[in-house]
Structure of Zn-dependent hydrolase:
Amino acid sequence: MPAVDTEAFLRDLYELRAIGTFKTGVHRPTYSPQDMEARRWLMAKLTACGLEASIDGIGNVYGRHPGPGPHLLVGSHIESQNEAGWLDGALGVVAGIALARAGLPVDVCAFADEEGHFSLSLPGSRSMIGDLTEEAIDGARNRTDGTPLREALRAAGLEGLPRRQLEIGRYKGYYEMHIEQGTQLEEAGLRLGVVTGIVAIWQWRIVVEGQQDHAGGTTMAERKDAGLSAVRLLAAIDAEFPRLVGERTTWTTGRFRLEPDAPNIIPGRAEILFQFRDVSVAVLERLEAGLKSLVQEANRRERCKITLSSVSKAVPALCDPAMMQALSDAAEAIAPGAWQTMPSGAGHDAQVIARTMPASMLFVPSIGGISHHWSEDTKDEDLALGIQVLHGAAERFLAG
Amino acid sequence: MPAVDTEAFLRDLYELRAIGTFKTGVHRPTYSPQDMEARRWLMAKLTACGLEASIDGIGNVYGRHPGPGPHLLVGSHIESQNEAGWLDGALGVVAGIALARAGLPVDVCAFADEEGHFSLSLPGSRSMIGDLTEEAIDGARNRTDGTPLREALRAAGLEGLPRRQLEIGRYKGYYEMHIEQGTQLEEAGLRLGVVTGIVAIWQWRIVVEGQQDHAGGTTMAERKDAGLSAVRLLAAIDAEFPRLVGERTTWTTGRFRLEPDAPNIIPGRAEILFQFRDVSVAVLERLEAGLKSLVQEANRRERCKITLSSVSKAVPALCDPAMMQALSDAAEAIAPGAWQTMPSGAGHDAQVIARTMPASMLFVPSIGGISHHWSEDTKDEDLALGIQVLHGAAERFLAG
């Protein structure tokens, strides 16, 4: 078995970075021309490594190893957030290419729209395990511009293609290599993270309905200011959530929009996308109850009507002990003392795949913890170390 | 002297409502094709009433009475907010047409962009009194889409036209008729408001700079969440401002934008447009000091950098006593007991014109207090009563 070709791995990453370049990062929103160019690039790469490459009706790119098993599945996603980094997702897919090139019995998959440009959660990996209905696709829209998913699939030339599902018995397990998207490794002076579990994200939409009015003619006593009621609710969450959360819980208001969003007009409507993440279902349920109480109290106190609705509720995923052990052993062999175990605060396709087979993840450091921004980066030597450890772990786990 | 033709006045208003119709309102943003169509419509109307009509280099439409004075200036604006009401501005301009048609020695002006689609405050009326530099025009941009004002003027065919200035000695005073944009008249069961003064608007931009990061990988302790710091500042304003304000002060956050405004990303930047309004300079200065203190405290407490900058500071305007008396006398003669005096909470071109000549305003009720929304409306009989009272006041004031 040849060793993994680190230089070819880095060259692949840099080639992919050149597709949809934005400053030092990339702009490859799902199904955009740049994203489709990247998918075609990937199919050519997979073919060159001896895999049977195809793209399916949701945009999943799949490379099938033609030889005998037991097989590993290796992958991640290839689209990016808007004007974001070059490694998020791409790293795990290109790692799959590297293991295939090294001759391991590996299938590679780039799961479509992990980044959630459309109003579905992890549609590519869910489609692969048979957990995505045609009706869900019918109803999905682009979160930024409202384009129906069906229309985007048609424009990308994917309409009418069958959607592929994984042959579950085919795989011994799934490995996903990813950037950390935090500063824990960097701050601890470490170079590798063996992931113990993936937090679940519970997403919520909060809509505040008030009365749009002129900001001068309408006295303070007359107003139903949707923006103000929204600010008060978010301030209450900021004050109350610390009493409810677990040790590693995160909670975030990523989107806050006013209508009509004009300087001289009292906002008639506000829309908030709020989320929290944790590895413990008990904590998640406690936070849900707390959020509902705060909204209930806001509806008692405010003049505006506030509606809370669930956007998505994922299940936390624990990583497979044997796959983690293979990663830990390979890490200790190649970079003794330079690794740790840690949870993943971000969601990944691995949490979906983990519902059907053993799954595990390997993290490499993010410089400054930055991701989802074009300045996201990881040192070449950390990328190289990562692929060596992943290769070693894959060999160990397949042999185990 | 013929009486005012109420039917022709209402007919004009309905004709203008048909230009850029949106639901029951209009969409005529400044210099849009619909807006320019309305300006051409106005020039034809002014010409038909015997005025010498012209448009100038900022888009002001002006109709000059050819006969001897003393003259009155009557006007308002003709563009609308986006998808907004049919009467805001249009009413005062069409009232000018009606007085001219009735034979009064009236010049009519539609001041450009009172609605502030571009990053200037009341540019049309300020240009008319010589308070708008070429440099200010060079630097102005559309607040919604960033189009430079120069580009918009060129596209509208206004590039290179001279800008007109008022001949100050020509006028005995300025009358502006407008919808109330509040519910004070409606709630008191009254039909007319004689305006005592116009509040000044002090506009502020608040920029919060944090660090854009992934909402899962970045622990709460690591974050610099610009959206959260913005929410805390707005909550502090909500808590503290009631201690500082005057009896009729209003304060409003009309715009609140996050970047990148995506569910899974910690906002790296927030931008707020905040304003307060009062008739008292002492109160305005107290609020400015209070706002600066709150921003200073936020910069001490928060991890993000918060910058406060002044967008515009208008001067409160008091209405002319003799012009108010003429309005009050006409109102009492035509609709005894159905009127009151009141301040204007909204800014108007009258506050600019009042710097160079006596000025006064007449309000008619807004149904439900709604304005800056397509459902804005006023009963036809209130519009008709308004033009009769304005006509009577103009006759009285010219004769006085």
Remarks:
- Residues 6-199+318-399 of chain B form a domain with the Aminopeptidase fold (CATH 3.40.630.10).
- The mean pLDDT of chain B is 96.
- Chain B touches chain A through 67 residues (CB under 8 Å).
- The radius of gyration of chain B is 22 Å.
